[in-house]
Predict the 3D structure of the following.
Amino acid sequence: MNIIIVGCGKVGYVMAEQLNKEKHEITVIDSNTDKLEQVIGELDIQGCAGNGSSLKVQMSAGVKNTDLLIAVTNKDETNLLSCLIA
């Protein structure tokens, strides 16, 4: 299953780690490039830098071919908007 996770904080990292172990294709979107690069380096996943509530960023992350988008940022507005746009 192709999954996009918006936000790679504690919750996003744990979700990406577990879903990656289950052999899903994971792409993480986050505006913090340092955190994003750390997660990509530790896990076998793809990453996309930017705001997850941006259609342009979601398109570059491959939202058209995604089965599931999970938004777990620390801002409820961003989470809701990210899901609505997807």
Summary: The first strand starts at residue 2 and ends at 6. DSSP finds four helices and four strands in the chain. The chain has a mean pLDDT of 96.
